[in-house]
Amino acid sequence: MKKYIPFDKLSKKERRRQNAGRRVTWGPLSPVTRRAKNPKAYDRKKAQRPDDDAVPFCVLP
After folding, report:
1. pLDDT, position 24
2. What's residue 49's pLDDT?
3. CB-hemisphere CA count at 13 Å for 58?
4. Which of 25, 24, 26, 5 lies closest to 15, judged by CA?
5. DSSP for residue 1
6. CA separation (Å) from 25 to 6, 17, 18, 29, 32?
7. Cβ distance 18 to 7 under 8 Å?
8. pLDDT at residue 7, rounded to an integer
9. How far apart are CA 16 and CA 10, in angstroms?
10. Is residue 37 within 8 Å of residue 43, measured between CB atoms?
11. Cα–Cα distances in Å, from 32 out to 8, 18, 36, 47?
């Protein structure tokens, strides 16, 4: 049986090992909170983006 040692008195290496064991992975989920963009709001990036479907015009002599 292991002797109980308070967390504050553990070595830095042992605290890191215990903390790593307590952490869990989110897997495919992202924990970042996201909000949908307001479609009525002005978006500078969208305004500067050129049209992808526009064909360059050139005149051949």
Report:
1. 85
2. 62
3. 3
4. 5
5. -
6. 26, 16, 15, 9, 14
7. yes
8. 95
9. 10
10. yes
11. 30, 25, 13, 27
What is the secondary structure of 4-60 as a DSSP string?
P--GGGS-HHHHHHHHHHH----TT---S---PPPTTS--HHHHHSPPSSPPPP---
| Residue 46 identity (one-letter amino acid) | K
pTM, 2 dp = 0.40
Q: Are 49 and 41 in contact (CB under 8 A)?
A: no
Tell me if residue 61 falls in helix, strand or coil: coil
Q: pLDDT tens digits, residue range 7-51?
A: 999 999 999 999 998 988 888 888 888 889 898 998 888 777 666
Phi-psi region of 5 (alpha: psi -120 to 50; beta: other; left: phi over 0): beta
